[in-house]
Amino acid sequence: MPADALWAAVMDGDEYAATDIVLAALDDGMDPEDVLMDVIAPLQERVGREWAANRITVAQEHTATAVNERVIGAVAHHPAVRRREAAAAERHGRIAVACIDGEWHALPARLLAEVLRLRGWQVDYLGAQVPTPHLISHLHRTRPAAVALSSSIATRLPDAHAAITACQATGTPVMVGGAAYGPDGRYAALLGADAWAPDARAAADRLARGPLPEPLRRRTVDDLPHLADQTYAHVTGAAPRLVRHVLDGLQARIPAMADYTVEQRDRTAEDVSHIVEFFSTALYLDDHELFTGFMAWTADILAARNVPPRFLLPVLDLLVEQLADHPRAADLLTRARTVIEQHPPTPPAPGPPNEDPDPAAE
Amino acid sequence: MTEPTQREGGARDVLDPVLRSAPSAVLFADADGGVVQVNDAARMLLGIPPGGPAPALPDWLARAQRSLGERTRPGGAGTGRASTGPAARGPIGDRVVEAYPVPDGGTPELTAWWLVDVTEREHAAFLIEMAEELPEVLNLERCMEVTARMAARHLADAAVVVVPRSEGSRPVACSGAGGRTGHGELPIDPAEVEGLADALRGFPPVPPRWIDPLTAPAWLLGLAPGRPAAIAVISLPGHGVPAGALVLMRMSGPEAFSVGEEPAVRLFAARAGAMLSAARLYGEQASISATLMRELLPPRALELDGVEVAARYRPSGDEDLVGGDFYDVFPAAEGGSRAGALAALGDVCGKGLEAAVLTGKIRTTLRALLPMADDHRRVLELLNGALLLDGAGRFVTLVLASARRQGADVRLRLTGAGHPAPLIVRAGGKVEAAPTRGSLIGVLDEIEVTTVEETLGPGDTCLLYTDGITEAVGGPLGDEMFGDERLRAALAGCGAMPPEALVERVHMLAAEWVGTGRHDDMAVIAITAPARGPEGRTS
């Protein structure tokens, strides 16, 4: 499989070239599940890494993802895949696969849906951004053996928690996966999911081992006792006000901001808003690493744009001003401050996009 | 007070007065399982008449006594260790009793058994389980399984739930010993089981009926773990509709419910019936709505005669599937081939289902007008007339786009009627508004519209959208409108994107802009001239 040629085709938005390469591999007898998991999944992860390292634009990310989606669609129609699905058909029960509301990264869920189909499950793939009421009515109607929920963005975890508990209230066990749950799936247990899988293959293996246990019925959910201090509720409720306070404060401290264009202003507001989102998510999960990790990453990105990471310090200080009465919030901001202060002023120089030799080997 | 019962050769003549009047039942048994002494409470529990002789131990207790003897024999396991839980449990009369042994109870040859009547606790557990589990479920199959499992656990050794269905087959859920539940459709005739047809009719509700196990058909007996000694047929009345019937099979015991069981059975039947009928009604409603929605839901992505088209839709309410925004795409074959494919996107006044029904009418009307799709003005005039005739005072804004492939390019004709102007996103990132304008449809007798022509080169996209996108309110500060400028700035970074990626990008930006806030319906169509053909040429 010429991985470099495939990468080039995907980055070029050339679905025909990309599809040809993948279908040729299937023609040569490569296992369809291996194509999905060892070729397309690493490709998509590489797209995500390139984006995270600021080496491709969001538009490029969308384009590459759309090409990958089309390639998966072509794989699903290859005779080898249809033969396999026909042979495995009806061996297992029904599974619903969905992304929660606010989650746009559908590709990991799509890969899971295709792998489960290959393994003989009847899969209802509901796609990205599924409002929880739709998901619940689907579960009532179809009664799957389990529902698999995918989350890529950590800031959507509070919503994921709501979706998980709502699904469980219908008696349907919930399996979760995706980057949002952390590499070791630590947030899956925290949020009370019935199972977690690091990737589609592991998810399919787990489901093949036997049915997930029926979820416990819970009248009230107190998975997260720290929420009792209302810090999270306060921060989410006050988020727009916090963002405005930070922006006003920055303007007073950084004279250059007066000359910002509308777009620069928007971009700064977005960045600050994003920081507040991660901050409140970390408060929800009571996990400071989520926030400090995000701040370190933001510092890297800023450094790559030649903005000194110390620019982030006044943001944290301005937030502390507003949240001094909330010890958990103040503590979290202090930890983040330490991380930024110790952050190297220059970035570890993210290389040019094509430096990455073979992402699958990582 | 009667004297403690004494067996011949009994080891003790007088029961300790404390034990005798203790409120809990206690009996002393010898190693052979003979009852040596009982106190007053045990006398009551076992139903021994005053002065009457002690009966033999119930079978289950005698078994426990024997196994206890084996364990406490020298060399046996567990010698002298008192365990905390009950050693055995079983029925005495219509009570459920747990037995706690005190080996070496006073004298080495005797075992004292404390007998605790747990009947009420069992009922309470059953009622709690009923209250907890029954209302959780809105899926009929699952309801049936929960009902069968609970009935088998608390009321019988095996339970079968039958729900009415149209001709022929009936879904059946059954649960046997061990709580295993199965579900299937059996081609059964309710007349084969005495009382089942009556019970399935539901109204008027009939009382539980005990039937002769010998008359039970093979399919029913096949669902029991063994040969049942007693079978009861119980009606499950629902919300005014027949919900189903429950068949209980007991491997032993009398053909009657005990005094304690009766009210629990009645309550269970009523609760289970209500739940089953709620699940059935929900299922029927859901399938009716799904059928209606399918007609109203717009298509998603299409390739039309060499033109790539993608569309995306998000209704205002999370509970809704449809709303007042709409789009539709018709291939050229259906319209005049000269005009090419036709795409329409619009926004009727109002929201929710009522608005969605009107969008359905409009889409049907547009489809009927396809033969004249060459002439946008004519189509819009006729649609205007149709809406005015409708007399409901509803109006619509919309854009019509006819697209025809010409070599590597796509020729477009665009006509807007009171709608935001379509945006052309060039492959290089330049964004232009198509200068078409016109009046709302459905308000005035005469309409005024202008049609413009545009050419899309390879990788160029024409974006049709509704104002739900640009009027989305939110953003980092919570109260700003997304606006035309932000949309155009975002599109400038979207040159040469595949159309589905572009519509996803636009929807995502708007969705992130509103965050958790309220928003209007949002609809977007992207019409794209393919950047390259299947042969890989970058035309």
What features would you highlight for this structure?
heterodimer; A: 362 residues; alpha/beta; five-stranded parallel sheet; 16 helices; 59% helix; globular; disordered C terminus; B: 539 residues; alpha+beta; six-stranded antiparallel sheet; 30% helix; disordered N terminus
Overall 3D form of chain B:
elongated
What's the helix count of chain A? 16
Q: What is the succession of H and E elements of chain A?
A: HHHHHEHEHEHEHEHHHHHHH
In terms of per-residue confidence, which ranges of chain B show pLDDT below 50 for 5 or more consecutive residues? 1-13, 75-81
Intertermini distance of chain B: 109 Å
SS field, number of helical segments of chain B: 13
Largest sheet composition of chain B: 6 strands, antiparallel
- Total strands of chain B: the figure is 24
Task: Characterize the overall form of chain A.
Answer: globular
Quick description:
The complex is a heterodimer of chains A (362) and B (539). Chain A is an alpha/beta fold. Helix content of chain A is 59%, strand content 7%.
Write up this protein.
The complex is a heterodimer of chains A (362) and B (539). Chain A has helices spanning 3-11, 15-27, 32-52, 58-76, 79-88, 107-118, 132-142, 157-169, 186-190, 200-208, 231-237, 239-253, 262-285, 288-304, 312-323, 327-341; strands at residues 94-100, 122-130, 146-150, 174-177, 195-196. Chain A is of the alpha/beta class and 362 residues long. In chain A, strands 2-1-3-4-5 form a 5-stranded parallel beta sheet, with helices on both faces. In chain A, helix 9 links the parallel strand 4 and strand 5. In chain A, helix 7 (132-142) runs parallel beside helix 8 (157-169) and helix 11 packs antiparallel against helix 13 (262-285). Chain A is globular and about 65 Å long. In chain B, a hairpin with a 5-residue loop joins strand 7 (170-175) and strand 8 (181-186). Chains A and B meet through helix 2, helix 4, helix 7, helix 12 and helix 13 of A and helix 8, helix 12 and helix 13 of B.
